[in-house]
Amino acid sequence: MKIEYDKYWSMKSINSSMPQPKVIDLWYKSITTSPLGVLIQQKLCSSKKILDFGAGDKKWKSITPKKSIYKSLDINNESDHDYHSIDQINETFDSILFMDVLEHIELNEGLRLSLNLIDLLDKNGFLLIQTPNGKCIRNHLGSDMTHKQLYNLRDLYSFFKSRGFEVDCYRVNVFANKLSVFAKIKHFISAFIITRIIGADYTDNIFLSVQKSQ
Predict the structure, then answer these.
(1) Which 3-state string (H, E, C) describes 64-129?
(2) Would you say 28 and 35 are in contact if contact means Cβ atoms under 8 Å apart?
(3) Which residue in 41, 90, 95, 203 has the fewest CB atoms around it within 10 Å?
(4) 79-102 pLDDT, tens digit each
(5) Rg of the chain over all Cα atoms, to the nearest angstrom
(6) Is residue 73 within 8 Å of residue 99, measured between CB atoms?
(7) What's the pLDDT at 5?
(8) Are 52 and 60 in contact (CB under 8 A)?
C-alpha cells in the first residue's frame, strides 16, 4: 500500500480538527531576523547536532547555533557537503532541517523520506519542514520545473499527527525584506480579496515543526 493511503481515515478525522495555523513572515534577504528565522532559531537553540537535508547553498546554516555541529546533505556537487545520500548516514541528530525540498520529490517517496528522517532524530528531536503552499493562488508547480508535488497544510499536519508526532504548523508569507507600512496595507487588501472573495490562500509556503517524542 502506498504510504499516503496508510491511516487514511485517521488522517481525515484529524484533518477537520487541526488548530487554526498562525501566519508568519519569511524575509529571504534577511532570514535570521525574519519572524520565521527567529522561530526556527528558538526550535534549534538546544540542538547539539543538526542535519540540513537538501542543503543546497547552505543558506539555512546561518540560523543554526554556533555551538552546534552542523552537517549537510545534498545530491549535487556544487557545494561541499558531508553527505550525498541518506544511506551514508550512520548517526542521529537533535534536529533536521528539511527546507524547500519536499516539493522536488514525488508524493509517496517524499512522505517515506520524511519518516526516514524522523528515524534519524534523537528523542524529542525536531524535523523542520518548509514547502510551497498547495492552496496558494500562485501556482508553485509553474515557478520551478523541478517541482513535482504540492501539499496543503491540513494533509501534512494530519499525516504526521496520525503517526503520533507533535506538530506545530504555520502559513508563511515570503517577502524579500520587511514590509513598509504602505506595502503592509497593500498586502492586507490583496490578502482580503484572495481569501474572502476568490476563496484561495495568499501565503506562499507552509511550515511544520514535527517533534519525535519517543
Answers:
(1) CCCCCEEEEECCCCCCCCCECCHHHCCCCEEEEEEECCHHHCCHHHHHHHHHHHHHCEEEEEEEEE
(2) no
(3) 90
(4) 899 999 999 999 999 999 999 999
(5) 17
(6) no
(7) 87
(8) yes
Q: What totals of helices (H) and strands (E) does the chain contain, helices first?
A: 5, 7
Residue 142 burial (CB < 10 Å; 0-12/13-18/19+)?
exposed
Question: Starting from the edge strand earliest in sequence, which strands make up the sheet with 22-27, in order?
Answer: 22-27, 166-175, 205-211, 121-132, 93-99, 49-53, 69-73
Query: CA 114 to CA 118: how far, in whole Å?
Result: 6
Can you read off the three cell numbers belonging to residue 10? 485517521
Pair 192, 144: CB distance under 8 Å = no
> Which amino acid is present at 26?
L
Indicate the CATH number of 3-211 among 3.40.50.150, 3.40.50.1000, 3.30.70.20, 2.60.40.10.
3.40.50.150
| pLDDT, tens digit (0-9, with 9 covering 90-100), for 93-141 | 999 999 999 999 999 999 999 999 999 999 999 999 999 999 999 989 8
Q: Residue 137 has what DSSP assignment? A: S
Q: Of 42, 26, 24, whose CA–CA distance to 34 is shortest?
A: 26
Which sequence spans correspond to the domains of the chain? 3-211
Cβ(23)–Cβ(202) below 8 Å: no
